[in-house]
Specification:
This protein is of the alpha+beta class and 200 residues long. Helices cover 35% and strands 24% of the residues. The chain starts with a helix and ends with a strand.
């Protein structure tokens, strides 16, 4: 009888120990997931979870068409780009991408760390497909957001276009990754800006 009691007691202790460990793991998971929620809720984002994916797609497409760096926008022709900021310091080899069947060429403006992905045959009137700015740079969006801008400045300027589900302390997506603007952060300061489609 004593042996049975000891066995039952041992099984109970093992069960309780397992539950305690599991609850600790769950608590850690909740703390980690709660961390980004606090960051998101502590900054000004007006976008609600009820906004549909289709709406964010439309928002992203509008941002891609209307947002700019130095007045340069997606689909702007290369001759207009050159009129605004001159010839690039470097051009990559033009190559066809399997993902879209288009010929792409990277234009690099080294002094400002700005890169343009241009579409079209080289020596033709290419068009801007995407714009990428990295640190250090003085380049700014039309809403005056640039490298070094505070995360609260970004969320205030793009509050109605930010999807909370894509927002962390390290990245904010205005629109979607399939079209829009991606801001990356370090210590709540902007370190890069991408305008375009970052995923197919």
């Amino acid at each position: 009888m004593k042996n049975q009691v000891y066995i039952i007691l041992g099984i109970s202790l093992i069960f309780l120990w397992g539950c305690t460990n599991n609850s600790n793991d769950i608590s850690k998971s909740l703390i980690n997931s709660d961390f980004n929620s606090k960051i998101i809720d502590s900054i000004s984002i007006n976008s609600e979870n009820t906004i549909s994916q289709e709406t964010f797609d439309e928002i992203g497409n509008n941002l891609m068409k209307n947002e700019s760096i130095w007045g340069i926008k997606k689909d702007m022709q290369s001759n207009n780009v050159i009129e605004i900021i001159g010839y690039p310091d470097e051009k990559s080899t033009a190559e066809e991408w399997g993902s879209d069947g288009q010929i792409h060429q990277k234009w690099t403006y080294a002094n400002q760390n700005v890169e343009l992905d241009m579409i079209g045959a080289e020596n033709s009137n290419q068009v801007v497909n995407s714009i990428y700015v990295k640190s250090p740079s003085d380049a700014k969006t039309s809403r005056n957001i640039g490298i070094g801008s505070n995360i609260t400045d970004v969320t205030n300027k793009y509050s109605n276009e930010i999807d909370k589900s894509q927002t962390t302390e390290f990245q904010i997506v205005a629109g979607t990754i399939y079209g829009g603007i991606v801001f990356t952060f370090e210590n709540k300061k902007v370190t890069s800006i991408f305008i375009g489609a970052s995923a197919e």
